Amino acid sequence: MINKSICINAVLFDFDGTLTKPGALNFSLLKNTIGCPSHLPVLEFIDSLPTSLGKEETTSLLERFETEAAKNSEPNDGAEYLIRYLRSKALGMGIITRNRLSSIKRALQNFKNITISCFDIIISRNTPVKPKPSGDGIRLAAQKLNLDVKEILMVGDYIFDIQAGKSAGCLTAFLDYGTASRDVKIDSDFTIFHLEGIKKIADLGLPLGESKPATPLK
Prior knowledge:
The chain is an alpha/beta fold. It has helices at residues 27-34, 42-48, 52-72, 79-88, 101-108, 136-145, 159-168, 196-204; strands at 5-6, 10-13, 92-96, 121-123, 152-156, 171-175, 190-192, 209-210, 216-217.
């Protein structure tokens, strides 16, 4: 929750389930296939495996799932319009994801009106920083964009996105599909139910706007 003036000069998006429609990657099936306990994140599970061979084999399976999901992914409702709108306002644009860069590139081929060139920076699993929920990727993006991290808005549909933003010290917006566990507190600055809400938030920060308490934007 914030109630002070904000200035947004860049927007970072999670990719899968945020810029794309959720559900392309079946995490339950993936976890069953690689033997990952349901309560553990996949990347952290792979890192915990005791042998290099086990990590390589499991990573290979993960990448097969990611490749297939990228092929089948679809742009989220309003995603392309939003990216074009934010670009028209000269805002920095980025993607920060736990996925591979090759999967992001493949998924973007399914977009009709935007390309990878619309983004100033992409922080992926190939980037040598800790993945979300670490804030390191956001801090790196701020450095590359020559911005104070406080000038960045992080947008995502999962708690790791919000935790990463909070860790880095930037503004956060949670895309709520109504599927998050009630036991998990999503402490975002903003809550939206569709991507159009990001346009309203960005407008608050162009160039300066008085923000509202972190109530849902409908």
